[in-house]
Amino acid sequence: MKVIDKWSDKIKKLQKEKNAVILAHYYQQPEIQEIADFVGDSLELSRKAAESKADIIVFAGVYFMAETAKILNPSKKVLVPDVNAGCSLADGCPPDQFKDFLKNYPNHTVITYINCSAEIKTLSDIVCTSSNAKKVIESVPKKQPIVFAPDKNLGNYLNKETGRNMVLWEGSCIVHEAFSLEKLIDLYQKNPDAVIIAHPESEAHILKTAQYIGSTSGMINYVKSSPENKFIVATENGILHKMRQEVPDKILIPVPSKEDNTCACSECAFMKLNTLEKLYQCLLNESNEVLLEKEIMEKAKIPIQRMLQL
């Protein structure tokens, strides 16, 4: 029996015994995506967390995602395979510094990308994901000034898309800022028949090359519905597993990172900390539980619910 199959069988058995649901982000290892009950982007997984009837939620993603699941399910036990699976966006926006930052912008509506900590969500009026950010921003009257955090690249893209002039926090995703424009151009010259698609967390010079810009789920749907046969994909390479399942006959080419000279891919080291063995151990021992203060959960739930209602 393969090692992967051994852990998968153990996890499935435990999962049934404990009435647990496994949620996994598209950037997880393929074997984790395969065993998950639901695989999706931040918005899809937020919805699944809110709808869950399970006693235990195992969230294979990064920590802020598990926090969101806990906020939406305060009475349930939420576990993570590895507590060190963080996020450069969330880590780059400390609550005390953000609180001081907001003092400079009174009377602004605060919109935060879901890639932030629970504490940052408590300072927000509404939360958004890359799937619904434009819709969330357009729900705010045009004359009302907005602070957008923590992703400056997503914020710049949304300013152009909506015609707003939102105040931006200076945060970014280390994975989406790692793409090499030079290598992307080289790829395109070798594949002039390819369509470039990119995640809006990417830098502006990468987005300028793209024929389609969208969330992880948006990119998958675009590739499925497009009549084109070849795509250059600018996002974390974990998405390729699901894409290849959806469009097995199409050619998918990942954009290399600036530092990548060994393989044509860009990986989130945080996402890849999770493994099947860690998932099994956290479910077996009910360890790595996400615990938040009641007050934080209650305050953070308000902007998340506003998003879900939209």
Order of helices and strands: HEHEHEHEHHEHEHEHEHEHEHEHEHH
User: pLDDT below 50 for ≥5 consecutive residues: which ranges?
Assistant: none
Please identify the oligomeric state.
single chain
- Based on CA atoms alone, the radius of gyration comes out at 19 Å
Total number of helices: 15
Topology readout:
Blueprint (H helix, E strand, L loop, with lengths): L2 H16 L1 E6 L4 H6 L2 E3 L1 H10 L4 E5 L2 H10 L4 E3 L8 H4 L3 H8 L6 E5 L4 H5 L3 E3 L4 H6 L7 E4 L2 H11 L4 E2 L12 H10 L4 E4 L5 H4 L4 E2 L2 H10 L4 E5 L4 H8 L4 E4 L21 H10 L8 H16 L1
Parallel strand pairs: 1-2, 1-3, 3-4, 5-6, 5-7, 7-8, 9-10, 9-11, 11-12
Helix pairs in contact: 1-14, 3-4, 4-15, 12-13
